[in-house]
Amino acid sequence: MSNSPRTWIEISRSAQRHNLRTIQRVVGPSVKIMPVVKANAYGHGVAEIVSSLRGQSQWGIGVAYGDEALQARAIGYRGRVVVLSNWQTKELPELIKNRIELVVWDQSSLRAVVRSGKKFQIRPQVHIKIDTGTTRIGFLPNQVNLIKSALKNSALNIAGTFSHFANAEERVSKRTQEQLKRFTTLANEVGADGGGERHIACTAAILRYPEARFGLVRLGIGLYGIWPSQESRDWCRANLGTVKLQPVLSWYARLAQVKTVSPGTGIGYGSTVIAKQAMRIGVLPVGYADGYDRRLSNRGFVIIRKQRAPIVGRICMNLCMIDVTKIPGAQANDVVTLIGEKNDAATMAELCGTIPYEVTTRINWSLPRILV
Ligand SMILES: Cc1ncc(COP(=O)(O)O)c(C=O)c1O
Asked: How far is CA 102 from CA 53, 83, 85, 191, in A?
């Protein structure tokens, strides 16, 4: 038996540094970068990523919600923190007192921030969100007068005007060009430059649409060394050959048991696999409750002793089984790689019919993360 955890995540500081440095090289020194650390830093562990970012040049960080912003302060992040998606009115006093920069997306969110700021005699820093075609949160571009009045509101410090692309990860994207045009036209019309930074570019747009970078970009998935999509990766390979990202996250577990089962034995719930001949089966103490996607059942694989071992049978809540028949040395306590080496988040995402963002974000947030 080992004293190490049954399963754990390793976060590579050097890979994270490499990715930030690489993107800074692509955008040049005049463009600032906002690492996006929402959703527990895309599942990597917000405390570990914030700690890793220490000492590296960054504009500030972006989060989705108010509670995430307060968590960033609680773990000691003193730089700029922007709530990009949504906050609750009851959170405003704490957010404002903690100098959190706040998205404002309609008249009522605007009023709530103004009211709360006045109460504490603080001019809150806000970023005006424009919905240029993603249909998430934001003012519609035809609400010009409302946007103008928000920008001129003397009770606020306007830190930025921003939007978000819907299609930047795709191969051909007329819609991205249209969103960018809508954003630029509107920002010019309302005089947004008097009010802080314009920002719209996520990883895919940072790489592909230099004209969308303005002075500030929001770097999410690329920070973690993962390509936003295969299309994005292919495009970069053809056009920016020197851009190499390094995956930051690896996921490991220790084999709990190895045994040989005889022909006819059923493996896992529903006996979706029946051994045709004697099989050596390894049991891993990881299941879908850990965020190991059940869609990997009879599809995914892990790496053990530098070789691939397929997942056999259905992934259970807390356990799953792998076929180690062809890896005779495999034994209990061996370290198994669930994500890492030649098994990356993109490969897993493809097997599951999803995107790599979901693969890392759903790794149970309570599993131990170790910064290496
Ligand atoms: C508002 C906003 N900005 C930036 C990002 C970062 O996007 P990406 O991870 O593709 O770089 C996200 C992520 O979805 C987002 O919601």
From this structure: 22, 5, 9, 20
How many folded domains does the chain comprise? 2
Same domain, 121 and 182: yes
Same domain, 273 and 189: no
**Cα atoms found within 13 Å of the Cα of residue 236, Cβ hemisphere only:** 27
pLDDT per residue as tens digits for the range 14-62: 999 999 999 999 999 999 999 999 999 999 999 999 999 999 999 999 9
The answer to whether residues 267 and 216 belong to one domain is no
Q: Which of 119, 259, 269, 326 is an active site residue?
A: 269
Residue 330 CB contacts under 8 Å (≥ 6 apart), including other chains:
255, 258, 280, 282, 304, 305, 309, 324
- Dist CA 77 CA 37 (whole Å): 12
Separation between Cα atoms, residue 54 and residue 246, nearest integer Å? 19
pLDDT at 172 over 80: no
What is the span of the domain harbouring residue 284?
249-371
Cα–Cα nearest to 103, from 54, 150, 135, 149 = 150
38, 129, 252, 292: the catalytic one is 38
Residue 2 lies in a domain: no
Query: Does residue 330 lie in a domain region?
Result: yes
- Atom 14, ligand 1: which residue's CA is nearest? 220
Distance (Å, whole) CA 115 – CA 94: 14
Among 68, 101, 164, 165, residue to substitute to test ligand 1 (most atoms within 8 Å of Cβ):
164
